[in-house]
Specification:
The complex is a heterodimer of chains A (about 250) and B (about 300). Chain A is built from 4 helices and 16 strands. Chain A is mainly β and about 250 residues long. Chain A folds into 2 domains: about 1-60, no CATH class; about 75-255. In chain A, the strands form 2 sheets. Chain A has a 12-stranded mixed sheet. In chain A, strands 4-3-2-7 form a 4-stranded mixed sheet, with no helix packed on it. The radius of gyration of chain A is 18 Å and the shape is elongated. The termini of chain A are far apart. Helices cover about 25% and strands about 35% of the residues of chain B. In chain B, the strands form 2 sheets. Chain B has a 15-stranded mixed sheet that branches. In chain B, strands 13-14 form a two-stranded antiparallel sheet. In chain B, helix 1 crosses helix 3 and helix 5 packs across helix 6. Chain B is α+β, with helices and mostly antiparallel strands. Chain B has helices at about 30-40, 45-50, 85-95, 115-120, 175-185, 255-265, 290-295; strands at about 1-5, 5-10, 10-25, 55-60, 70-80, 105, 115, 130-135, 135-145, 145-150, 155-170, 195, 205-210, 220, 240-250, 270-275, 285-290. The longest helix of chain B has 15 residues, at about 175-185. Classes of the chains: A mainly beta (about 250), B alpha+beta (about 300). Chains A and B meet through strand 11 and helix 3 of A and strand 8 and strand 10 of B.
Chain lengths: ~250, ~300
C-alpha cells in the first residue's frame, strides 16, 4: 500500500484515449500491475492503461496524474470517493457521473466535465470537481448533487439542466448557463448571460455562498476575494420554463 | 485547607450525567449573535422547572466561526436523549430563526449521535427551502423576509455533566455577592462550561423533595438558609449570614473542575468564611468534585 498512486503519461496517445477506468476509489483495492492492466479505448480500439501511463504506487485512494492529458477523456467516471489530482489540462468527460470524492484539475478541462453519460438523466450525483482553469461546453450538465468549481471560464451551457447541486464559475460563465435548471445553484462571480426564462428575485448576501467560498479558500486553496465572500449577489430564479426552484446568483460587488 | 483565610470544607459537589449539545450562533455583529443566544438560553436555569439547562459558553471571534462572522457558542443540556432535540427545535425555531442576520452551526461536529434540528426546522420554508452540502455537511437554507436563514442539518450530542457547584458562605449578603461576582468573572469564557443561572449565581439552592408538600420535587435548602438557623438543623457556621451558590454544567468533568478551581480561588476574598459544596451523600450523581482535591 502506498500513500498515493501516480500515473505519468509516458506514451502520448495519437488519438482520443478513453480512460474511464481511472478513479481514486477503484485504485484503493488494486496493485500496480492490476492498475496497468485496466482497459482503455484508444482511437476506438481496446488497449491497457499501462500502454500509455507509467504506474507508481498501489492500493491508495489518492491518485496523481501527470503529463499532457488533453487527449485523455472520461477520467474519474463514476468515482465514488478518494482524491484525484490531474497536474495539467485534461480532455472531456472528467468526473462523468461521479458520486463522491474530489477531482482537482490543475489546468483546463474539456466538455461535459461532471456531466452525464449520453442519454442518461443524471450527471454527477456527489463529490467535488475543482478545475483551476476553464472548462468546455456543458460542464455540470444534469448534475443531481455535488460541487463543480471553475476558476476560469465556463463554456456554452454550463450547468444546463441541473437537478440540484452547485456550480461556481469565477470567470465568464458562457452563453446558456443554467438553462433548463430544475433546482441547484449557479454562482457566477464573473460575466454571465441570464437566460430569458429566469426571473429576478432580489439582491442580497446569501449566507451559503459565503460559507462555500470560505470553504473553497481554506480547504481547497482556491483564490477568493474577501469582497466575493461578503459581497452582494443578484438572485435570479429559474428556469421558469422548468420547475423554477433553481437559482443563478450573480456577484454584483462588495 | 484555607485560601486567603477562607476555609475550604472537606466535601464534594455531586453532579449528574446529562445530554449536551453545543450551538454556534453567528450574526452580522456580535450584538445580534448575542441577542439570539440570550433569547435561546432564556428560562433554562434548571431541569427542575425548565426541562433544560443552557447558557452562553463564550463569545467567538470571526476566525473561530464557520462563516467568518462574530459568534457565540452555547451549551444546551437535558436529562435524556429524546428531550434535547425537542427543546432545541422549539427554541432555535423561536429565537434564532427569528433573529435578524443570524445563522446556526453545530459545535460538536465529531459527536456520533446526531440530532436532526435543522432538518426539522427546514419545513418552516414551506417547500421553498433548499439544502446545500458544503465540505461534507448538509445545511438548510430557509427563506425568510430578511433573506435566508442558514442552519446545519444535524447537531452533535454528547454525554455531559450537570450540577457541578460550590457554595459561598459569607459574613453578609454584600460580601457573598461580591465573592460570587468575582467567581463568575473568573469562570466566564472557560471552555466547555456554562453557568446556567442568572448572572451565573443561585440564591435559592434547593434540597430534594419537601418536608411538608408532597407534590414538590425541590424546596428551599433550609439547612443553608440563615433566616432559619434557629428553627432547623442548620449547617451554617457561626457568623455566616448569607449564602450564594454557583452551579456549573459542562461538556465533561475536567472542564468543570478547571472552572471550579478558578471560581473558588476568585471567591476566596474578604468577608467570605467558608466554601462548601452540595451533594446527596454521593449516592445519586456519578460525578464527584472534591473541593480540596481540585484546589490542591
Amino acid at each position: 500500500m502506498s500513500d498515493a498512486v501516480t500515473l505519468t503519461l509516458a506514451t502520448q496517445p495519437t488519438q482520443t484515449l478513453v480512460a474511464d477506468c481511472i478513479a481514486a476509489d477503484r485504485f484503493a483495492a488494486l496493485g500496480a500491475q492490476e492498475i496497468a492492466a485496466l482497459p482503455v479505448v484508444h482511437g476506438g480500439r481496446p488497449a491497457t492503461l499501462g500502454a500509455f501511463f507509467e504506474v507508481r504506487g498501489e492500493r491508495a485512494s489518492v491518485v496523481r496524474i501527470t503529463g499532457d492529458c488533453r487527449r485523455v477523456e472520461a477520467i474519474g467516471t463514476g468515482m465514488a470517493g478518494g482524491e484525484l489530482v490531474i497536474d495539467g489540462s485534461v480532455g472531456r468527460d472528467v468526473g462523468l457521473a461521479m458520486s463522491g470524492g474530489r477531482i482537482d484539475v490543475r489546468g483546463n478541462a474539456g466538455a461535459n466535465t461532471g456531466g452525464a453519460p449520453a442519454g442518461a438523466a443524471r450527471g454527477m450525483t456527489g463529490g467535488e470537481i475543482i478545475v483551476r482553469g476553464s472548462v468546455g461546453d456543458d460542464a455540470g450538465a444534469r448534475m443531481r448533487r455535488g460541487l463543480l468549481v471553475v476558476t476560469g471560464d465556463g463554456g456554452q451551457g454550463t450547468g444546463k439542466g441541473m437537478i440540484a447541486g452547485t456550480v461556481v464559475v469565477f470567470g465568464k460563465a458562457g452563453p446558456g448557463a443554467g438553462r433548463f435548471l430544475k433546482r441547484g445553484s449557479i454562482v457566477a462571480l464573473g460575466e454571465v448571460e441570464r437566460p430569458a426564462t429566469f426571473g429576478y428575485a432580489c439582491t442580497y448576501r446569501p449566507p451559503h455562498v459565503a460559507l462555500l467560498l470560505r470553504y473553497l479558500r481554506s480547504r481547497c486553496r482556491v483564490e477568493v476575494a474577501e469582497g466575493q465572500i461578503s459581497g452582494r449577489y443578484e438572485r435570479y430564479s429559474g428556469d421558469l420554463a422548468e420547475l423554477g426552484k433553481g437559482e443563478l446568483l450573480r456577484w454584483v460587488g462588495a | 485547607m484555607k485560601i486567603n483565610d477562607v476555609t475550604i470544607e472537606d466535601t464534594f459537589a455531586e453532579a449528574f450525567t446529562m445530554r449536551v449539545a453545543r450551538l454556534v450562533i453567528t450574526g452580522r455583529t456580535l450584538g445580534w449573535a448575542r441577542e439570539a443566544a440570550v433569547k435561546l438560553t432564556g428560562f433554562a436555569t434548571s431541569v427542575i422547572g425548565c426541562k433544560c439547562e443552557a447558557g452562553v459558553e463564550r463569545e467567538l471571534p470571526d476566525s473561530e466561526t464557520p462563516d467568518g462572522r462574530p459568534g457565540v457558542s452555547v451549551l444546551f443540556l437535558t436529562m435524556d436523549k429524546a428531550s434535547l432535540p425537542e427543546q432545541l427545535i422549539v427554541r432555535v425555531g423561536q429565537t434564532v430563526l427569528t433573529c435578524p442576520t443570524t445563522a446556526c452551526f453545530d459545535g460538536l461536529p465529531d459527536a456520533p449521535d446526531r440530532l436532526p434540528v435543522g432538518k426539522a426546522l427546514r419545513v418552516f420554508g414551506d417547500g421553498f427551502q433548499a439544502s446545500k452540502v458544503i465540505g461534507g455537511k448538509r445545511y438548510w437554507r430557509i427563506p425568510v423576509m430578511e433573506g435566508e436563514f442558514l442552519i446545519e442539518e444535524t447537531f452533535g450530542m454528547l454525554k455531559g455533566v450537570a450540577g457541578g457547584n460550590f457554595l459561598i458562605l459569607a459574613r453578609d449578603a454584600d460580601a457573598a455577592l461580591a465573592a460570587a461576582e468575582a467567581a463568575v468573572v473568573a469562570m466566564t469564557g472557560a471552555p466547555g462550561v456554562i453557568l446556567p443561572f442568572p448572572g451565573g449565581v443561585v440564591r435559592s439552592g434547593s434540597k430534594v423533595g419537601s418536608k411538608r408538600y408532597t407534590n414538590m420535587i425541590a424546596t428551599t435548602n433550609d439547612a443553608f438558609d440563615p433566616t432559619l438557623r434557629a428553627i432547623t438543623p442548620s449547617q451554617l457556621p457561626e457568623g455566616v449570614n448569607s449564602v450564594l451558590e454557583i452551579v456549573l454544567d459542562g461538556i465533561d468533568g475536567p472542564s468543570i473542575e478547571a472552572a471550579m478551581r478558578a471560581g473558588i480561588r476568585a471567591a476566596c476574598r474578604p468577608g467570605v468564611q467558608t466554601i462548601t459544596a452540595g451533594n446527596y451523600g454521593g449516592k445519586l450523581g456519578p460525578h464527584h468534585f472534591h473541593l480540596r482535591k481540585i484546589l490542591g
